[in-house]
Design a protein that fits this description.
The protein has 3 helices and 8 strands. It is an alpha+beta fold and about 130 residues long.
Length: about 130
């Protein structure tokens, strides 16, 4: 049994990008899907799609590489963990890696990127960072 679905998904994406795989499969949850939507909108993955296999759902993720075959994902890090939750107010959520990276924040208005959360003036649990 997996306690932290987001951490498992990030690990699978990180490992697949390090190995140079084209696709990887993740276990489905609405939170993982929201995180992947931010990754896709910011250009860190090509695409993702939800597949149903009977009762279970999976997410197929197509990873993105540059023209030299190098992954566009440099680092993926889980920040808030089950044993230590990390919360930040809106004024502490600003640019990450000079705008090249994204921090994913779970707020009362949904799962948002750091720039959207700062613009909306909401803070929340800092889930992960990617650059």
């Amino acid at each position: 049994m997996i306690n932290d679905m987001v951490s498992d998904a990030l690990t699978r994406v990180r490992n697949a990008s390090l190995r140079g795989l084209e696709n990887t499969t993740l276990l489905h949850s609405n939170l993982v899907e929201a995180v992947l939507k931010i990754f896709k909108d910011r250009g860190f993955i090509e695409d993702y799609s939800v597949k149903e296999d009977g009762v279970k759902k999976f997410i197929n993720v197509t990873l993105k590489y540059d023209e030299n075959g190098k992954s566009v994902i440099t680092e993926v890090k889980k920040i808030s963990k089950p044993g230590r939750r990390v919360y930040k107010p809106a004024n502490e959520i600003k640019k990450f890696k000079n705008g090249y990276g994204v921090i994913v924040v779970s707020t009362s208005k949904g799962v948002l990127s750091n720039e959207d959360a700062y613009r909306m003036g909401v803070g929340g649990e800092v889930l992960c960072s990617i650059w």
